[in-house]
Each structure stands twice: as structure tokens, then as C-alpha cells.
Amino acid sequence: MKHNYLFDLDQTLLDFHASEHKALEIVLTAHGLHYTEDIYSAFKEYNKSLWLELEKGTISRKDLFTLRFTDVIKRCGGDPSLHDPLAINDEFIYTMSINGVLMEGALDLVRRIKTEIQGSRIFIISNGATINALGRIRSTGLDAYLDGVFISEDMGVTKPAPEFFDMVLEKTGISRESCIVIGDSLSSDMLGAKNAGMDSIWFMPKGDIEASMKAYDIDYCASSFDELFDILVSIP
Ligand SMILES: [Mg+2]
């Protein structure tokens, strides 16, 4: 029976963007800066372009953190010379880590899995920063239902690499056949499951679903937590 559930974290059980939004508002307001929705949209867009620069190696991590908050301060009408962008960045990261936001119904889902599916185990498999992910998991109470958490920063490998999944199997002692991967991302979760030879459930599928299911060897799709639960209990 497939009763070892490997859950992606962001936009599957937790809402990363909602945490980011909340943290930005708290931190900017604390520094007397005027926060608006437009500021968040601009932050998200600029941040994304900076992460691409970082991946290309054209800027450092420190540059990224400095640049993104220098930009935000200016957008809020503040004077960057009167603020410390790096310190604000640190506060932002910390504030985000203690302000996890659940996807609506996520806590009910994990509670139902643990109480209604005998022998079920829930593991988190996430690409990202360890402190940020662990903090958000704890702050939402999700940790009470988890049997293990695997974060790429900690492991030194990233989904969709098969090594990521091999490491999970090695550390937990569970078999490949007993696992099912559940996530929203085609490029990390679904491709990862395919690479690792595990079954998969694509959560909140979008676009050309049929074509993607074929291309990524996806076994099931779920558009809500109720649908997902029904699939889990029906899997032999
Ligand atoms: Mg995700």
C-alpha cells in the first residue's frame, strides 16, 4: 500500500506568497515606510529578476538582499541612506519564518490523513531555505502531523534530482514503492517523482493537463484537498 506521502510544501500545504506579503507589510510598517499592494507586486517582480541574476552568477546573495530592499525603500518614498537595507532584509526573513500561512484546508487534510488512513506517514520535501521552511511549518502547527521534513538547503541537493528522493528513502528506511509524491510544480515535484520512479499526484493542475500528465508520467490530479483525500484512500 502507498501510505508514505511525500508532500511538497509551498503552494501545496503552505502559502509562501501570503507569508511573504504579510512579512513585508509588518517590516516596512515597523520602519515607518508606507506599504501598499503595488509595493508588494513590484517587490515580487524585482525579486524574481534578481534571483535569475543570482542563478547566472552576475550578482551575489548579499547584492540581491541589498538591492531588493534599496528598491523597496525608494518605492515607499523613503531615503535609502537613512535605512539599512540588509538589516531590513534580515528582519523580513525572520518575520516571514514566524508567519507561516496555511493553504485553506491544509491542516484538516493532514489531520484526516493521520486519523483515517491507517499506517499513513507524511513527509515534507521542499526546495528552499531551511530556517524559513521549518519556522513556517512550526508557526502553523503543521509539525504535529509530520513524520519528517526534508529541505534542499540542508540536503545539498534539489528536486527534481533523483538523489534528493534517494536520500529521503535512505534516511527514512521506507521503500520506493510505498511512496507517492504530491505537489503543485511540474518542474520540481512531478519531474522529480518521474526521475525517482515514484507515483505522483499533481495538486491544483493547470494548463494543458492531459499533455502534462503524459509528459511527466503523472498518475493522478487533484483540484482540491477533498479530491486529494479521496485519491489517497483509493490508492491500493
Ligand atoms: Mg510548490
CATH class of the largest domain: Alpha Beta
Q: Provide the succession of SSEs.
A: EHHHHHEHEHHEHEHEH
Dominant shape = elongated
Residue windows where pLDDT falls under 50 for at least 5 positions: none
- CATH architecture descriptor text of the largest domain: 3-Layer(aba) Sandwich
Calculate the mean pLDDT score and round it.
Answer: 95
Q: Cofactors and ligands present?
A: magnesium ion
As for the number of domains, it is 2
Strand content: 5-15%
Annotated CATH topology of the largest domain: Rossmann fold
Specify the number of helices.
11
The biggest beta sheet is recorded as: 6 strands, parallel
Helix content: 40-55%
Give the tally of β-strands.
6
Radius of gyration: 19 Å
Q: Which sequence of strands runs across the widest sheet? A: 3-2-1-4-5-6
Euclidean distance between termini CA atoms: 5 Å
Structural class, judged by helices and strands?
A: alpha/beta
Verbal overview:
This protein has about 240 residues and is α/β, with parallel strands linked by helices. The chain folds into two domains: about 5-15 and about 100-235, Rossmann fold, CATH 3.40.50; about 15-95, Orthogonal Bundle (DNA polymerase, domain 1), CATH 1.10.150.240. The chain has helices at about 15-30, 35-55, 60-75, 85-95, 105-115, 130-140, 150-155, 160-170, 185-195, 210-215, 225-235; strands at about 5, 120-125, 150, 180-185, 200-205, 220. A six-stranded parallel β-sheet has the order 3-2-1-4-5-6, with helices on both faces. Helix 8 (about 160-170) crosses helix 9. About 30% of the residues are buried. The protein binds magnesium ion.
